[in-house]
Structures are given as C-alpha cells and as structure tokens.
Amino acid sequence: MDQTEAAVAAVPPPVPMAAPVVPVDLTVVKKRLGGGGDMAVHDSSGSLAFRVTAAGVGGRGRALLDASGGTLVTARSSEGVWQAFRGVSSEQKDVIFSAKVMSASSKRKEVHVLVPPRSSFEDPKPSYILVGNPFQRACTVINGNSIVAQANLPYKLNKPVYSRRKFRVTIYPGNDNILIMAMIMTFLVQK
User: 16: how many CB neighbours lie within 10 A of its CB?
Assistant: First the structure.
C-alpha cells in the first residue's frame, strides 16, 4: 500500500493549455454578389463559427455575430476612421480597436490598427498592420515582426480558385480569433 500511495503522489498534475497550438482555419463565404457584405464564416469542420452582417442606420457599419446570432463586435466608420466596439455599444469605454487606411492603390492597401490604450495614428508603431488587396480577398495581419493571420483565395492543385465569394482565413496560435476576424472584416469593407 505504501508503494502505491508513493507512486500516485509522484505523478505531477496535468498542465493546462492556455492557447491552441495549431492554426485555426476558417472559410468565409459571401452570401450575395454586389453590395451588402453579408458573410458566413465556417470552421474547418464546416460548422458556422461567425456571421458578418450590416449594422447601424443605412448599413454604414458591420457586425460580427457568433453562430447563435449574438453580436460580438460592431464596427462603425466616422471621418475615415473605423472603430470596433464590444457588442452593440458605441461608447468609448467599449472600443476594441480603431483602424485607418494609411495607403491605398488599386493593387495594395495598408491599414493601421490601434488597440487601446494607444490613441493616435501618428504613433510610429501601430498595434497591428493589415496589408493586402481587398478585391482579391488577400490580407496579412502583422503584429510587430510576426504574421498573426492571413486571408487569401482558396487553392486547388496549386491554382487559385478565382471566386471572390469564398476565401480562407488562417489565424496562427496564440491570437484572439474574434479580434482578428473583426479586423479582417473591417479591412474588407473599409473605403
């Protein structure tokens, strides 16, 4: 009996995992062609993970919803700056991030994202930088010197499938999926 108790006492407790160790792959499908911007986001098993819908008066904003339809993030534009808020709030205390287009051309767009407490776009180091081409649904999310997520068109046999209605988002381990999806949502609709 004493040996059994000693063996049980020698086993260390399991170590909890703080974050997933594999990238999260999501597939985004735009519901209809043309305006509107409603999108469904599915996880790798095909289950609905998020939805993107118009929000606010006249559809001048976007909302990121969970699978059950609860609002996670609402993004609104004002004077060229997009602000994302928790839930349906529009109070400054609930700002998750602010985003502004710093450079844009027909082939490339760069958006700087500030996460509070940073508050000025003159800051030489934004929290995140999004670089890509919204027309081709291509976007790279950069934090410091590391890539935290990428969005691009799906590939089939080393050839891109040119349907702008469907694209893939890969979020690398250790990042907030909701924050990343909200930033990509803003990048794709931001003018």
Answer: 5
The position carrying tokens 């063996």 is 7
For residue range 60-112, list pLDDT tens digits in order: 788 999 999 999 999 988 888 899 999 988 888 899 999 998 888 888 999 99
Across residues 16-30, what is the average pLDDT?
Answer: 77
What whole-number distance in Å separates Cα of residue 142 and Cα of residue 135? Answer: 19
**Cα separations in angstroms, 190 against 16, 55, 60, 78, 175:** 39, 14, 10, 11, 22
Contact 109, 103 (CB under 8 A): yes
Alpha carbon distance 189, 101 (integer Å): 11
pTM of the model: 0.79
CA distance 188 to 10: 54
Q: How many CB atoms lie within 10 A of CB 13?
A: 5
Q: How far is CA 29 from CA 44, 78, 92, in A?
A: 13, 27, 31
